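Course assignment 3, question 2. Fill in each field.
Student: A.L.
Task: Predict the tertiary structure for the chain below.
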Amino acid sequence: MILRGLFKDKYLYVKLWRNEAQVTDVVNGVSLREKSNIEFSNDRLLIANFYEAITFLKNLIHKIKKDYRVKRYNSILVHPMEFIEGGISEVELRIFLEVFESVGGRVVKVWDGEELDRGQVIEKLKNKSL
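Answer field:
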């Protein structure tokens, strides 16, 4: 239990657009939005090039958390902002989960509703179901 206090929960809220992402550290409010130099989206999928997306997102997340001793986030809430007409397919959901587990998320959830504030993000990530 003593160690639990040393490693506070870290939460990321990641909004995705075509070849672009905004990463917000929900606890401290630091946010960064960038466009990728290399395309990882196509006309049908936000993440069409799996490895290019991982590289871009790892670099973007690293810029947010560069001063942390532990380089892993407990929870990441992914929010696709485009290509969600008709809902997120099972295949797209799997892509989001795989990519964000690869960039360091222990718990990864996907949200396709309205934009959330910091408190709502934490609530969604702590909730067992989404």
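Instructor remarks: The longest strand covers residues 73-80. The beta strands are 11-17, 20-25, 31-35, 73-80, 105-110.
Grade: pending
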